[in-house]
Amino acid sequence: MSTLDAASTASTDHRGDPVTPAHQRPGDTAATDSVSALLERGRALATPELRAAVDRLAPPMDTVAAYHFGWIDADGRPSAADGGKAVRPALALLSAEAAGAPPERGIPGAVAVELVHNFSLLHDDLMDGDEQRRHRDTVWKVHGPSQAILVGDALFALAGEILLELGTADAGRATRRLTRATRRLIDGQAQDISYEHRDQVTVEECLEMEGNKTGALLACAASIGAVLGGADDRTADALESYGSHLGLAFQAVDDLLGIWGDPEATGKQAWSDLRQRKKSLPVAAALGSDGEAATRLAGLLATDAKKSQAEFEDFDEAEFAERAALIEQAGGREWTAQEAQRQHRTAIEALDSIEIPGRVREQLTALADFVVVRQR
After folding, report:
1. How far is residue 260 from each of residues 173, 209, 269, 332, measured CA to CA in Å?
2. Which among 259, 252, 241 is positioned nearest to 214, based on CA atoms?
3. Is the CB of residue 98 less than 8 Å from the CB of residue 239?
4. ∠ CA 103-104-105, rounded to 5°
């Protein structure tokens, strides 16, 4: 759970063909330009406040966090590294506009959500043993596990501080939503870790885990700007529902990329989720199907679950390729691509229950399209 190169992004179905929302024309440059502008606006408005928040941290946590965000390199020199897609800040600003407020009203929410998101990335990278993120060594690899833990904790604390400093009733409402989303995010990470050593996980369990781990924070991002803009709970809840389903679509695409993504695009190793024994949606769907491929896959994964991580790291590429092929043969790749589309449609439908400006609705739709049409 990366900066947009939307013109070249496309997730793929089981045949390697683009997975494109039904209403979107391939090569729709107007939609691509619109999303690029939304993401850039979110990055431009949130980053100065994000930097100011990080500057509050005591040394060396401030420089460790700056490295994580891509602002400096490992030697402390200014850097223009990939700082992430900025989907969450874009959502927070659009959320404020959905409530009829100026986008700037959503900036504290955008910053708070980004801080929590990056708290989770710092800890996830350490727990998962990931050595690369966004084509660079992860924080724990460069600065050590202790700094990864401490800086993650500090970012989490800063998120609440940023919101509560506003001193308004709406800020209190926003903080409650962010705190609830953070608890669910942590629940999801705990579920994800526990599943790695189970022989089998159902699709329902996997969707619950991913709804917590990814959906909860995107749901918060999609509603927090509206709350800060004075929206009532009905409006905020509908936007939260949009974000929740968008998060599930986002994670379904991530799960496809976690097995079949191009390492040069994702910034991670080939077969990264298989290397970590993750029971992601393609795996769960494959194991829940009938047939020889599912049976063979279940046998291999049951044996894998009993191995130590050191033994598992000795696998060669052919062994990971075999598991990926069995997942595809058992229908896991196709089912997950279809699930991304189902969640995308449900996200858009959630907007139908509220009155929001037409332009904002179009932009929320374009952002949802981007989530399911990407390569990283």
Report:
1. 40, 21, 10, 12
2. 252
3. yes
4. 90
CA 133/CA 68 separation, integer angstroms: 9
Distance CA 25, CA 31 (A): 9
* Structure-token match 């196709």, residue found: 334
Rounded Cα gap, residues 20 and 27, in angstroms: 10
Structure tokens at 257: 């990329």
| pLDDT score of 93 more than 90 | yes
**Average pLDDT of the chain?**
89
- Integer Cα distance of 122 and 128 in angstroms: 10
Q: What single-letter DSSP state applies at residue 102?
A: -
What DSSP line would sit under 300-342, residue for residue? HHHHHHTS-HHHHTT--HHHHHHHHHHHHHTTHHHHHHHHHHH
Peptide bond into 60 cis (omega under 30): yes
Terminal C-alpha separation, the chain: 10
Domains of the chain: residue spans and CATH:
28-372 (1.10.600.10)
- pTM of the model as a whole: 0.87
CA distance 106 to 91: 9
Amino acid at site 99: A
Q: Where are the alpha helices (DSSP H) in 129-144?
A: 139-143
